[in-house]
Design brief:
about 350 residues, alpha/beta, five-stranded parallel beta sheet, 15 helices, 12 strands, about 15% strand
Length: about 350
């Protein structure tokens, strides 16, 4: 099918990161996509080689006068241009119109997933919610991901880039928002010899504002293309991630991680955090669940960072085992294709 995927870059890189990940996944399955984006500059480092089946269209005002495809996806409620919507309604067979929403583990997601919203001109917009169970739209997971992880040589990859840990050092990555309590985190990490790989932006700024600590070696990373960021997560024994795209990739990595949801002024991100932790920690040992809950809450501003650190082996075992239940489910791309076929 021919798809039009609309994306507005609001701030950070989560919007374009999720949209590119989805577009590349669908393109690899033989779909033809036009990715409309108002600011495609991040794709220069995020996806320098492009992707099969994906054409990037600069979303200008007025927008390019192009005929709609078979499917129109607006990411996170960014309405397509009115003239484009009018052309959608004029088609003999109107396209399937999808509003791809933000990821959440909250209970209401399953109730809202797949609901129709009648639009002027006889069009119907369908709400599509990613999620963590079969009642939702699933998680982005391209075919072949597990095989790629199994074939990956972490030590060789880090060494080739000059980021290899020294003997006795653990390797950790840091990707965070400006609100992350990095100054409080670094002394906790420094208790154990640690190589901390800092992504560009807030992670580097906040870490460099702290005086060097014995036991902690910080290295600045360049901007990484999405495949290399995935490899970074696979190579590290501990990952701090944020938002949506890196959050999902950290889950698939099967390594201990700490998530910082996108901070919202009304505190809605705390509800998102609690909903995911309730699901994620349901089967975890009680001591591990309590330690991780305190750490994650402190990292996201719902309290102070705890002095105690979760048991490393129990954390690693849980991080490795939990994604297996998700791997047994169909992925977002597969579900989305089935959903669209059912609405055509």
């Amino acid at each position: 099918m021919r798809w039009d995927l609309f994306c507005r870059v609001v701030d950070n890189y989560g919007d374009i990161g999720v949209c590119w990940r989805l577009a590349a996944d669908l393109g690899a399955r033989g779909e033809q996509l036009r990715l409309w984006v108002d600011d495609p500059s991040a794709l220069a480092w995020m996806a320098p080689d492009g992707a099969a089946g994906v054409q990037v269209v600069r979303w200008t005002t007025p927008a390019a006068d192009l005929e709609p495809g078979d499917v129109v996806v607006e990411a996170f409620g960014c309405d397509p241009p009115p003239a484009f919507v009018a052309r959608m309604a004029a088609r003999a067979a109107p396209p399937v119109w999808i509003n791809l929403e933000y990821l959440s583990a909250e209970a209401w997601v399953a109730r809202c997933h797949g609901l129709p919203s009648p639009q002027p001109g006889g069009l119907i917009k369908w709400f599509y919610y990613p999620g963590f169970d079969d009642a939702t739209g699933g998680l982005i997971r391209e075919p072949g991901l597990a095989a790629a992880q199994q074939a990956f040589d972490a030590a060789a990859w880090l060494h080739a880039r000059g980021w290899a840990p020294r003997p006795g050092e653990r390797c950790a990555s840091l990707f965070c928002y400006d609100t992350a309590p990095v100054a409080a985190l670094l002394p906790l990490l420094a208790r154990q010899p640690t190589l901390l790989l800092l992504t560009p932006g807030p992670a580097q700024r906040l870490a460099h504002a702290v005086a060097p600590l014995p036991g902690l070696r910080c290295v600045d990373l360049p901007w990484l293309a999405q495949p290399d960021y995935d490899r970074l997560l696979w190579a590290c024994g501990l990952n701090f991630v944020r938002g949506e795209d890196s959050f999902v990739r950290a889950i698939w990595a099967g390594r201990p991680f700490v998530w910082q949801p996108y901070p919202q002024h009304d505190g809605a991100h705390h509800a998102k955090l609690e909903a995911f932790m309730a699901r994620w920690l349901a089967a975890a040992p009680a001591a591990l669940a309590a330690a991780l809950r305190a750490l994650w809450q402190g990292w996201s501003g719902a309290g102070a960072l705890p002095a105690a650190w979760p048991d490393a082996q129990a954390w690693a075992d849980h991080a490795r085992a939990w994604p297996q239940t998700l791997r047994a489910q169909t992925d977002l791309g597969t579900r989305l294709l089935g959903f669209v076929q059912g609405k055509r």
